[in-house]
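INPUT
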Amino acid sequence: MALHDEQGVATTTFADIAERAGVGPATVLRHFPNLGSLVMACGQHVAEEMRPLTPADSTRVFAGQATTAARLERLVSEIDAFYERGSFRLIAAGNDRDRVPELDEFLKMVDAGLEGLIREAIVDDAPGDPLMSVLMALCNVTVWQRLNRANLTALERQAILMDLLTCAMASVRSRKPPMP
Amino acid sequence: MALHDEQGVATTTFADIAERAGVGPATVLRHFPNLGSLVMACGQHVAEEMRPLTPADSTRVFAGQATTAARLERLVSEIDAFYERGSFRLIAAGNDRDRVPELDEFLKMVDAGLEGLIREAIVDDAPGDPLMSVLMALCNVTVWQRLNRANLTALERQAILMDLLTCAMASVRSRKPPMP
DNA sequence: CTATTGACGGAATAATAATTCCGTGAAATT
DNA sequence: AATTTCACGGAATTATTATTCCGTCAATAG
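OUTPUT
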């Protein structure tokens, strides 16, 4: 995992891993007969450290929040914390996702989990397909990454994202008048 | 360029290129002694097809637009067209940017150009560092990509992005009261 | 105490890709 | 017509990495 963090997944060689682990290359190969199995194994630990968001977090995160705005507020705070934990690895995984199928799987799962949680947050507002796409776009890790690089405190960052999500909801709704 | 589009830059081998070109591997190597020079050469053509935005486009794009809102409107339309032309390759390049220095260079240039044009659009509003970061985040190609995948027309897409940029400006400004 | 098991890892091998070499032939020059 | 030049590309070479092989050793079972 350290090496994958330092130099990326696909560029790390089995020999690199063996050396860092202080064992022979053959030993690494025995435990992980191919890159896929190694990535899967790392994935377990990565997921633990990163704690991806899923609809299962819904009750914990949204407990007692009656309004959509209140839930969005909580959602943003969770997303911020999540990316604080995992943005680095999410981006690294993204770089290699079409070289390593297991990384693609993982990222799809993370994405699906996030989408589910967002749905829970705005469940009152009958989220349509376009709205969800827009919200997912705003909650993307690259957006967070750029916000994070800005000269902003965590609270400012969250406030801005909150504003953007709210704005997105209004914007999409205004363009899709309810069917008569 | 076709092969880079089909299977990515770093995964394409010189032999692949030679075969596709109907020549021997050595011939490709003579013209492009290393991957970097090949990428640079492709970059010329890619840039032509993609026409990255730069502050130089300012006069053409913003001609006669007196208000910030009007300029933003034009900006969004340009960005949308730009990504329509180039999002595919921008993303592919992004995947290999830390394997191929030349791709990194290229993307930095594109980014700088876009940032410059955005600055021109909001020049009236004394753009601060944080605001620019937020706007750049929203104008990121991955955001566009997700909006594009949504069930939206180009005009809807642009309208939403326009709303988001406007909202971002208000949001950042409200959080950074002018110094007394 | 001896036999068995199985993880270990250095070294050999295979696979893939980059890079060099060198003979060939077509075009340009004399 | 003879000579020079030079791009070409098949084949050999090198480099890198994955993968296999097999002898060694420590722990465990009998």
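end of record. The CA atoms of residues 3 and 95 of chain A lie 15 Å apart.
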